[in-house]
Amino acid sequence: MMEILDTSQKESLKQVNTIDFVTHDQKIRSDFDIFEFKKNKSKDKSKEYINFPFEKLSEIKKCAVTNQYFSVFLIVVKGVTNLDYLQGLEIDDYQVSSIDINDLKKHRASLVNLFLNLYGSKILPQTKISKSTSSIYGELFYPVGKNDDPYNRHVLSLKYYKGLNISVQSFKKKIDNHKVKYFWDNDSLVPSRIYNSKDKANDYWIQGGRSSEKNLITFLSLNSFKEYKNSKIGVLYTIIDDFNESLGKYIEFHLYEMSKDEEVVYQLSSNKQLFLESAIKYFSGKKINVVDYINEDKSVQFVEKIILMLNQEIENLDVTRSNKLKKGINISITKDPKYYSGNDKDDPYKSFSKEIIVQNITEDNLEIKKESSLIKNPICLKILQELMVKDSIGKNKIEFTFIPKEKINTKYKFVTFHRYYYGKFYKDYAVTSQFDNDGNIIFDLEKSEDFFNEESVLAKNLADLGIKEKNKGTVECIFYDEVKNPNVILNIGIYEIPKMETISERLRLADGRKKPYVKRLINDLELFENQYTEYKNDVDLKNVKQLLLEFDEEKISLNEYRQLLSKCNITGRKKIGKAYTDYLIKLNSPYIAFSNHRGRDFKEDYSPLYWTHFFRNIPGIDKTVYARGKQVPVNHEFYSVAEGTSNIKQTYEKGYPIRRIINKGFRFSEEYNKLLSEMFDVDFVRINQATVVPFPVKFNREYFNMVKRNLIKE
Q1: Number of domains in the chain
Q2: E strands within 348-402?
Q3: What is the pTM assigned to this prediction?
Q4: What is the pLDDT of residues 204-221, one digit of tens each?
Q5: 71 and 108 co-located in one domain
């Protein structure tokens, strides 16, 4: 992730495994002029992307140029040229104007590109603004290795699109190829792109030469900068240092490494062990009753395994089974809630109260993948975690073997909102909780309309932050020490990050500009036919392969491929389209399934990676809201946690859960940041499970579930 930050913000930045930059605006203003050539609007859609005549700028020295969407930006050493000269060039379809650095900040990609291109011009003296530009949409090449192979060479590619993308590109020498062509007339320098050239050169270079996995390593696919330094493209450090030495007085790039303390977030096995140690202390000497309401072979086997494991791992724990819930701690094996509602039966899970602590497991989770120990069985760890929460609520007291005393903040009250349905009607409630130094929990339950009473000072201050009764559903948690200073955490869901080694592939899933090899598409289609034999002789599938065979280029863009599939009646709404989509997902293919069948899931899960990457939090101001005429910071925090659910779930196999936490509040301080860390970073939260939420929220939810049956129905 890259952000344009004021110098004052630089010290507080705590990103890891990221690149960001800082601009020195006044120095840029004093030494450079910046101009924008803006494309005139045209009713003729075919003229929207006419190539800019860069050759008209060839007489201008000491400059760099880049283009983005409908504009071309030019940065030039002050005094070299002026607006009158540029207007006199009379470039058709473009209006030129002088702009300030603040205007350019609205086009972050172009800002980065211009200075990358200035840097490129410095290290490559003959790279001039002629019939080509040194960068297209922010792409800059830098030689890697000696490049002494006469037919294959490698360069480091820096691209900017919603973030800085850095990877090694391979080039090969070709003759009379229809691909985009590059001249490479000096072994130590990068190639220059050729635009609309009719030159029948005997040899030139195109992207896509001989490569290996090491050559194709990308920045995002690496776990830490330690790996990056040891990788073949560790030359990035040299480039950044050299760039900052040359142009750092205008713009500085910074690399942020993950500290040892922050790396613990990803040491999940270590975190599980810490939790298990606490759980063993917590349950030692207790009794647990297991009730199997399904009583079928699968559930019986599951109960046998879980009883055996718990009794083996936890000293003096007494785990037995019976045919009904008993006072104390229970594990309930039931059908899915839809089964009971659909068959007009009472769901036994809903019958528990504070005197009967129940953790429900439905039949779709009756699987223990490994039996060697609890630490390798996330479903068992989740059972213990859930029971510890509910048992604490039942006693209105947290034992410090569960959550360390130093991580429980006694200063704040925490508010969450809940809805209780009875028949066709429902009531909304607010639950407030507070913890004291002895671990006692004080809960308060009131109707939502009473909480938002017109006379309430707290409600008025929440309204200033945009939180009223009608939009309380957007709130995950309100916390405050004084009613005049409330903070609001907005509930915006979870994102799942794939495993580190596959993330660079996954990031390509939704990018229609990516160009896989045509041969690979054909090969994957044939593999699909072999696996899904019902489509072996499908006419539409044969038509797709035939069109690909007739395609006259080595690669095809994903957008073109999707259009081709649609043309052959293979869409996501059809059975074959859904099957092909699922096949590609299982294959972990670097090109996207074309269908809406799974497209929405991918969009929600993976597009946020452009903004989150792998950092733990960003303590800084991102946006502002207005309260009582004053600008109020909206603080963004990112933590490795996930959302709540009423049912036990297995661990995420594809990667680590991450949530984006947005807080609206009046204050931003070290104390506030520490509070959030305590809420999200206690040991039991870090077990990589789907039921993990800020622990005050978790406690409030479970409290409401345990008392809602006793609410008076009005």
Answers
A1: 4
A2: 356-362
A3: 0.48
A4: 888 776 554 444 434 333
A5: yes
